[in-house]
Amino acid sequence: MKKKLLLALFVIGGCLSSCQQTETMDVIEEQEFSFEAVTDGATTRSMKKKIDVISLCANTEKQYSAFDLAKDKRSWKDYKNETKFFAHFPKLSSNEELESEREIEGGKDYLFGAVEPIFGSSSVGIRFKNMAAQIYIIVRNEDGTLSNPKLAKIKLKNKGKQNLKTGLITLLESIAPQMVKFDKTEDGLMCTIVLPQKIKDGTVVEFETEDGETGSVTVEDDVDLEAGETYQMVLSSGSNRTRVATIYDPLIPLEK
Asked: Which of 80, 109, 132, 152 has its CA 20 to 30 A from that of 160?
């Protein structure tokens, strides 16, 4: 009799547990959730823009769609556990397919992020990475002081393709290098945003200082510019009072 009672209690307990799990899933699936952008200081240093409207797509969907971080929400009933989301900022020009590529050019920020959130979360953070690289340029004067150039350009490849699912950028090798200018940022520094690539020893840099000095110099040594990194190019006096351009590793703090 005791065995039958225990068995009955076990069955009832199992049914109650199953019902509670079903009710919990129902509650989760009806829950809405939002997204928020997570970045570090270097990610948007040159752009000074607030990440607002992004392009968002889940791995269960075919196309990206616009999503306003300030007001839009999604519902868990439309997704399942282990769903992964992909995002671009600035938003894509149209409803691009997840499994596709787009042609891009330097001079712009290309922020990309991916996240696999905990199912049922009320808020999901997307950590964005700048898939381009940034170069700041500065002049080291003969007396050792530093100043910003008035104008500067560097010759490099400026067009590529971006995989919309991974965010990775590859150069269009068939396109010839061109002169790309540095622009002044809000903090007064001169910066250019370039596609990840190898800048080779001998790459041409044209400049004009605030004192009216103009010239054309070449980069010393090969440098691999990596996505999300910030570099500093220093124009300093070399032998015979000619200037040379040196690009420093991103681990070295930027000189002011």
From this structure: 152
DSSP structure string for 61-119: -SB-EEEETTT--EEGGG--TT--EEEEESPPSS--BSS-EEEEESSS--EEEEE-PPT
**Helix H or strand E encompassing 146:** strand 146-147
What's 154's domain CATH number?
2.60.40.2670
Residue 160 and residue 230 share a domain: yes
Closest by CA to 215, choosing from 140, 152, 146, 131, is 152
DSSP 219: B
Reduced to 3 states, what is the DSSP secondary structure of residue 16?
helix
> Which residues sit opposite 214 in a β-bridge?
208
pLDDT in tens, 48-85: 578 999 999 999 999 999 999 999 999 999 998 889 99
